[in-house]
């Protein structure tokens, strides 16, 4: 969510324990549209599989609901603790959690219970924030338990990392990590990654940490592995121009808007690319070998980060977004590049021409192909609800 010249990017990576089809780690995220407030919860259920998932989901859902409804994060955590059952054998809680409540201007309140302590990075280096310990004695628990509360004022460029113990304990028993990866080695790895890629996004960093943890386990995860990253940074803008305007007098305005846009730029559609190239006096060059998976090849043009075919590519991208497909799982091509640009952006601006393209009146076109306006509306909804992106549509 953007506040002035800042944006809160949140994403996470995850691997389930080998052999499990459902994970015992649960990460939930929500934002308040009216003020840009972000609430995210990482919960780790005791054990693995369905039982752990139910307990982690119960914990995370309660946390999200309480904090979203502006119940104080400390009060919320205490209610959750008193609600959670205690294991009759091990005398410990059935799930652990980390809750972060972050306002759009970067004021963060974080409360943790038995998860590995979060990491706080500024300028790529670890900070050691003040933490307040809150003791809590519950009936049935073996000992007094402790909640840890942190209150931070994030600056642009700061990162927060939350992880389950599947990350810090990865590799345990192996020659390289007899006691597990542990916090110290994890910090070294995070600082190394950020130093080599200072602008790395939340998605890439969280996935990189999870992949290293899985590698520590010999590529067979011995526990659920989850890492979530909050990145407080300058917003990244993306413009998508698709379809010629219904009024030809708007052609030059569309091309000029594209040319002056401060951010990444995609052109979706051959007719649109020809229009922009004509108005700006540029060339469009087709990259014949860049197509894949029934998607026509992409093109290149000065000033554009990506030039693709129109409706077929948009439909594929919309479907991939809806299914939360990881771009790295796709073959290189227009759809993968499109997804990467979308997911790396915070604000997505659609400039949509509404002129009817005679080519799309062909009855041989698949019935599932939707009209441009419908696809863009669908993408807008998915980007806002599933990815917490800001979007704006302007029809011409």
Task: Describe the model.
The protein has helices at 49-68, 73-83, 165-168, 182-196, 202-216, 251-260, 270-280, 311-322, 334-343, 372-387, and strands spanning 2-3, 6-15, 25-31, 38-45, 95-102, 107-113, 119-122, 125-127, 131-136, 145-153, 159-163, 225-233, 237-242, 264-268, 285-286, 299-300, 306-308, 347-352, 390-395. With 396 residues, the protein is an alpha+beta fold. It has a 6-stranded antiparallel β-sheet with strand order 1-2-12-11-7-8. The model has no long low-confidence stretch (mean pLDDT 87).
Radius of gyration: 24 Å
Oligomer: single chain
Euclidean distance between termini CA atoms: 27 Å
Order of strands side by side in the largest beta sheet? 1-2-12-11-7-8
Q: What's the number of helices?
A: 10
> Percent of residues in helical segments?
25-40%
Number of strands: 19
Biggest β-sheet strands, sense, barrel: 6 strands, antiparallel
Helix- and strand-based class?
alpha+beta
Q: Any descriptors?
A:
six-stranded antiparallel β-sheet, 396 residues, 19 strands, single chain, alpha+beta
């Amino acid at each position: 969510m953007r506040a002035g010249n800042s944006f809160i990017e949140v994403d996470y990576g995850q691997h389930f324990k080998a052999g499990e089809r459902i994970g015992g780690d649960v990460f939930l995220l929500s934002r308040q549209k009216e003020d840009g407030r972000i609430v995210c919860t990482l919960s780790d259920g005791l054990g693995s599989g369905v039982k752990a998932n139910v307990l982690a989901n119960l914990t995370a859902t309660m946390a999200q609901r309480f904090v979203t409804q502006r119940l104080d994060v400390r009060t919320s955590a205490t209610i959750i603790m008193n609600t959670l059952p205690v294991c009759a054998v091990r005398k410990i809680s059935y799930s652990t959690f980390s809750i972060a409540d972050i306002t759009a201007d970067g004021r963060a309140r974080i409360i943790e219970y038995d998860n590995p302590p979060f990491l706080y990075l500024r300028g790529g280096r670890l900070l050691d924030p003040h933490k307040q310990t809150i003791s809590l004695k519950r009936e049935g628990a073996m000992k007094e338990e402790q909640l840890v509360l942190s209150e931070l004022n994030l600056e642009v460029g700061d990162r927060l990392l939350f992880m389950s113990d599947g990350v810090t304990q990865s590799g345990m028993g192996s020659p390289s990590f007899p006691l597990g990866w542990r916090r110290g080695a994890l910090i070294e790895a995070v600082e190394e990654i950020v130093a080599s890629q200072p602008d790395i996004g939340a998605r890439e960093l969280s996935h990189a940490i999870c992949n290293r943890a899985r590698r520590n386990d010999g590529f067979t995860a011995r526990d659920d592995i989850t890492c979530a990253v909050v990145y407080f940074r300058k917003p990244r803008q993306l413009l998508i121009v698709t379809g010629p305007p219904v009024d030809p007098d708007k052609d030059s305005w569309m091309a000029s808007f594209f040319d002056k846009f401060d951010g990444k730029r995609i052109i979706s559609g051959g007719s649109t690319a020809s229009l922009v190239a004509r108005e700006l006096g540029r060339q469009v060059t087709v990259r014949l070998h860049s197509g894949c998976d029934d998607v026509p090849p992409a093109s290149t043009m000065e000033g554009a980060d990506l030039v693709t075919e129109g409706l077929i590519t948009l439909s594929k991208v919309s479907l991939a977004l809806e299914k939360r497909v990881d771009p790295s799982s796709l073959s290189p091509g227009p759809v993968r590049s499109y997804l990467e640009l979308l997911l790396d952006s915070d604000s997505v601006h659609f400039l949509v021409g509404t002129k009817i393209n005679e080519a799309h009146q062909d009855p041989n076109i698949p019935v599932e192909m939707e009209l441009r306006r419908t696809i863009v509306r669908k993408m807008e909804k998915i980007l806002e609800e599933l990815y917490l992106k800001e979007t704006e549509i302007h029809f011409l």
